[in-house]
Amino acid sequence: MVAMEGAVGAWAWWLGLLFGAVPLLCLAVWHSTGAWYCAAFALKYRGHGSNGIRRRLPPGHMGVPFLGETLSLLWYFKLARRPDDFIGAKKSAYGSAAGMYRTHLFGSPSIIACSPAANKFVLQSPESFGIRWPVPELVGITSVVNVEGSSHARLRGFILAAINRPSSLQTIATVVQPRVVAALRTWADKGTIVAATEIKKVTFANICKMFISMEPSPLTDKIDRWFGDLLDGLRAYPFDFPGTASHGARKSRRKLDAIFREELEARKKVDRQCDDLMGGLMQMKDEQGKKLSNEEVVDNIVSLVIAGYESTTIAIMWAVYHLAKSPVVLAKLREENIAMSKSKGGSTSTSLMITHTDIPKMKYTAKVVEETIRMANIAPMVHRVANRDVEYRGYTIPKGWAVLVWLRSLHTDPNYYEDPLSFNPNRWDEPAKAGTYQVFGGGPRVCAGNMLARLQVTIILHHLCVGYEWELLNPDAEINYLPHPRPADGAAMAFRKLST
């Protein structure tokens, strides 16, 4: 009897521990990261700033030690496939909070900015917010996306001249179209394609031609794979040990460095100048007449290829995907583009090359392009860091904290776009509300290739609409949101020449 009572007592003790102490311990762990940073913040400021105003961190939750809210982010983006609920949950829990929340992501205490005003404040205050990539060396320490001040202004000016001014776009339109036309014929011959794969091939081939004068080959196939690894690592948690995406990205970055350095040295040995982006970077000089170093040229080529082909590939894929699901939109788009082709001497089902000066006449096509880019949300956020303590609407952004400008939250918010997840080019009959359209970022670092991206999407839509038709094989395929948004099957489709 005594033994039985002892056993019951032992069970009661363990059950009490399980249902009492363990939940308390889990709760303590759940709030420990936030408690640590809030205590450090309170100790630093002793409750008040120099102006006597009480300093406060934006509301939010900072997750578990070390990982922060990374698991929560992965849940919403990867498992639940509801990426907008990551920010939506914060809005529900803490209200608008001036459009800012505290969190812990990518290994750093962070502030999320997710309203038009808060995003604008961060993006247009370069003196207060510097660049902060989770792993800066992946995109290049000396590249245009990392450097600041006069170095950034000089590199950005060159890039704008090389790929975004009208004369450059006119040349690019001429260069890329033959490859696009040839690719579409090949797709029709295949009959069934995975759009994401095929679009990536033609876009990458054009970028290689424009940026480094490389034609498709086994080497460019390797370069393509290495860039794929690099992109996977850019948005992964920065664990650097074998088997992780970040580690694989670093290895691929070293391989890309070696290839582009070899190309640089080969050009220098024979004093070969090429009319491409790499050639232009090699000839760039600063105010003192000093040229870019090999490291600077390679860093910028890598960062520009990353920006130039993956984002455009995704945008084109989503355009084709949404048009397959929107027959009324496709019919109207086809009508405009066939009319453009006929005006240039083409037939009903044969497209002729369009020029950069033709594009402003294609009003409905422009609406389709903007709606595609809005819904694609290729870059859900951009990374900044507070260079100093910054006050914003009663909250303090501490010096050294990462600042994540959450662009996606604007483009999918029903307060700014009616039925935001529906594909509706007609919404662009009126301009977007001020500050709510930030697909290319904003401020002095707005994407330098924004017009190039629009040009490439417009060109392929023109040739698609005039000469081809397609249907999705799995119209209800699930959407993957990491590392980039795309249908799980890559938008597999039947593809054929347009019936006359």
Provide structural commentary.
- Helix 12 (294-324) runs parallel beside helix 16.
- 39% of the residues are buried.
- A five-stranded mixed sheet has the order 1-2-8-5-3. A three-stranded antiparallel sheet has the order 4-12-9.
- 54% of the residues lie in helices and 10% in strands.
- It is α+β, with helices and mostly antiparallel strands.
- The radius of gyration is 26 Å and the shape is globular.
- It folds into two domains: 2-137, no CATH class; 138-497, Cytochrome P450 (Cytochrome p450, Orthogonal Bundle), CATH 1.10.630.
- A hairpin with a 5-residue loop joins strand 10 and strand 11.
Mean pLDDT: 87
Helix fraction, binned, reads: 40-55%
Distance between the termini: 93 Å
Largest sheet: 5 strands, mixed
Q: State Rg.
A: 26 Å
List the secondary-structure elements in sequence, H or E.
Answer: HHHEEHEHHHEHHHHHHHEEEEHHEEEE
Percent strand equals 5-15%
Low-confidence stretches: none
Number of strands: 12
DSSP helix count?
Answer: 16
* Strand order in the sheet with the most strands: 1-2-8-5-3
- What name goes with the CATH superfamily of the largest domain? Cytochrome P450
Task: Briefly note the structural class of the backbone.
Answer: alpha+beta
Binding site for heme: 447
Cofactor: heme
Keywords: Heme, Iron, Membrane, Metal-binding, Monooxygenase, Oxidoreductase, Transmembrane, Transmembrane helix
Transmembrane segments: 12-39
